[in-house]
Design goal:
By secondary structure, this protein is an alpha/beta fold. It has two domains: 164 residues, no CATH class; 211 residues, Spore Coat Polysaccharide Biosynthesis Protein SpsA, Chain A (Alpha-Beta Complex), CATH 3.90.550.10. It is built from 15 helices and eight strands. The chain has an eight-stranded mixed beta sheet, sandwiched between helices. Helix 2 links the parallel strand 1 and strand 2.
């Protein structure tokens, strides 16, 4: 290829690489903030309504409902409200039995069911909102088991600091590479992002479970929004825009179930990422106007943190274009540098499974994010936490993508573009890893 013909390609490569680096840096800004020390946790008691949304996961939900019995909290101050959307008779029976056991132990517990399902989980939360008569509301997903000190510590945090909500830490249980990947992703979010955010006064993310919310402040910002598939991020942003603050405490408030396969994980990720993109379009401009200048960039990149994944796809696009040019040695180093940084960070933090899946993971996230920017409507998708039969077509497509990357890797070796080849091999191995546990 002539040098004149390669100039436009060089310009495109430079633009993609520059955009990738900008997103890479933007997504990492939260990590430059040092953590401030925290004081010890205390305990306090106020009336709390415990909301547990359920959909056809009766056996799992029964475990969650039963964990209320282990709470170190006065039973007369707890109202348990199970929001059951189940249409499976066995699931309905399991929920009814679990609630009956709570009542037999002296707890105020009831089951709410609705005739029409509008807005998924968020729609049911909004519909049940008038039934909450206590100062605080605690949201618990039905696949979580409560820790004994969850309510007392969260109420203490809200009462002692005057914040509108308290997000507790949580962990996941499960075995195998997919579960370990999810746990390492969660640890990164809690230890690296949430702890820095709360210690520096940035908005604390609501994670959709194990969160205590001041019921009056919830009403002040409009309550639960049914017109979203990520009601947790939507509520986080509305609290931030209203000037109401939240806090995070590292106490594990509950233990949830990890999704058993990559196919189910990516279904869950798709909802999260599309909801993230839609929230960015809805609230991003308002957030930029409302926040202080120094906090704006960090909080924006932290709250909408999927920019990181897009940067890797931009680098991949630049690498593929580079294979068609006559050779740009300066490009080799810069195309591989972010991947090398991620490898070093993953090895240092012992996030091996995160690194192994990161390239395929980023590709999926980037495609979901773009879809979210252009898709006005997306229905709530519930993710089963029990092993389901995976899609053979999905696994085949992931495998085909891996083989394509292997073929392009071989082409890069023939062209003696070894740094580009190294990145392409990383993509190939990542897709093979995902396909193996699809």
């Amino acid at each position: 290829m002539s040098s004149a013909a390669s100039l436009p390609l060089l310009a495109v490569e430079f633009f993609l690489l520059a955009a990738a680096y900008a997103l890479f840096i933007l997504s990492s800004l939260i990590l430059v903030l040092p953590k401030k020390p925290r004081r010890d946790l205390g305990a306090e008691y106020k009336p709390v309504t415990l909301l547990i949304p359920v959909y056809n996961e009766g056996k799992v939900a029964a475990r969650s409902i039963g964990s209320v019995l282990d709470l170190n909290y006065p039973k007369e101050l707890i109202d348990v409200l199970v929001l059951d959307d189940s249409d499976d008779p066995e699931s309905v029976r399991c929920v009814e039995d679990a609630v009956a056991q709570l009542r037999a132990k002296g707890y105020r517990a009831s089951v709410e069911r609705r005739k029409t399902r509008v807005g998924g989980k968020a729609g049911f939360l909004r519909e049940a909102q008038p039934k909450v008569k206590t100062p605080y509301t605690f949201l618990l997903d039905c696949d979580f088991r409560l820790s004994p000190d969850a309510l007392s510590s969260a109420v203490w945090a809200c009462e002692s600091t005057g914040v509108s909500y308290c997000q507790l830490a949580w962990s996941l249980e499960g075995s195998g590479p997919v579960a370990r990947l999810q746990q390492s992703m969660l640890e990164y979010h809690l230890k690296e992002e949430q702890e820095r955010a709360v210690s520096r006064g940035l908005p604390v993310k609501i994670n959709g479970s194990c969160v205590l919310v001041n019921s009056k402040d919830l009403l002040d910002v409009g309550g639960w929004n049914a017109d979203t598939v990520t009601e947790d991020l939507d509520l986080t942003l509305r609290f931030a825009l209203s000037g109401k603050k939240g806090t995070y405490i590292p106490l594990v408030g509950g233990i949830g179930l990890a999704t058993p396969s990559f196919s189910s994980l990516f279904k869950q990720l798709k909802r999260w990422v599309i909801g993230n993109a839609q929230c960015m379009l809805r609230y991003g401009g308002k957030l930029l106007k409302a926040a202080r200048k120094t906090d704006t960039i960090i909080s924006f990149s932290y709250l909408f943190n999927y920019f990181f994944s897009i940067s890797y796809v931009l680098i991949l696009a630049a690498v593929l274009i580079n294979l068609g040019t006559s050779g740009n040695s300066w490009f080799y180093f810069f195309s591989l540098l972010p991947a090398a940084v991620l490898l070093i960070a993953s090895a240092y933090r012992k996030y091996f499974y995160s690194y192994l899946a990161s390239f395929a993971y980023s590709t999926f996230i980037a495609s979901f994010f773009v879809e979210g920017l252009f898709r006005k409507r997306y229905g709530f998708v519930r993710t089963k936490k029990v092993r389901d039969r995976p899609s053979a077509l999905g696994k085949a497509l992931v495998m085909v993508a891996a083989l394509c990357f292997l073929a392009v890797f071989g082409f890069a070796l023939i062209l003696l573009k070894f740094c580009d080849a190294a990145l392409l091999l990383a993509y190939a191995l990542s897709f093979l890893f995902v396909a193996a546990f699809w």
